[in-house]
Amino acid sequence: xxxxxxxxxxxxxxxxxxxxxxxxxxxxxxxxxxxxxxxxxxxxxxxxxxxxxxxxxxxxxxxxxxxxxxxxxxxxxxxxxxxxxxxxxxxxxxxxxxxxxxxxxxxxxxxxxxxxxxxxxxxxxxxxxxxxxxxxxxxxxxxxxxxxxxxxxxxxxxxxxxxxxxxxxxxxxxxxxxxxxxxxxxxxxxxxxxxxxxxxxxxxxxxxxxxxxxxxxxxxxxxxxxxxxxxxxxxxxxxxxxxxxxxxxxxxxxxxxxxxxxxxxxxxxxxxxxxxxxxxxxxxxxxxxxxxxxxx
Length: 296
Fold this sequence. Notes:
alpha/beta; 7-stranded parallel β-sheet; N-acetylneuraminate lyase activity
């Protein structure tokens, strides 16, 4: 990866392999990061929601970043640096910089429904580290919506360079492009990848490549080059799995798919609990169908 915008391309929001005793398996995580890059992914995003960062100790969280950098190089690692406090988020960005990362991903304040002044101050604080910041808009979970007008302000102030868009509202792609053409739009939800790619997304912070990297990368490349003859049927095949990325149980679902294709996903830490039998059967059937179709 030579682009000075390391958030472009397919960056996998990595699931974190846990042992049966719920300890972090860093050796397996290092191998997983290397495997993703070897299978065509452009980089990894550790310590996102899919990586269960909220239930890691500070030492574990730091070692996850260091492990990813050692495995694939800092230019391919863009950690999530979300925290309840702006000073803590800034410290995680500083840790990422010390580890050799070239960019970080940051949620807005999410301990409460922050107003726009608080959001701007939060991003300003983390931007002080000097690393490029990718905003992460997830209004479903955070209750704070980085609407296009607010993104334009954050970009105009020099606080963010791109946005991971997880609102699910694909219409925003066009409004963002009108208001702030210099801001890179990244698909943030797997199940709207095609729509956002056609609308001009420059990257995909993706979940399901954890289990199916080659077919997901093929989908992204076809979609962003507007090769719909390739992209559309592949998207239809993958969509029964991709839509799990937008569900509450996305971590459990993706980890189960990883286990089924021979990758170690393993259990999740509480308060996440295993999928219920109906959910597990649905993920299992969709994964097995994808494997049978040669998509694994």
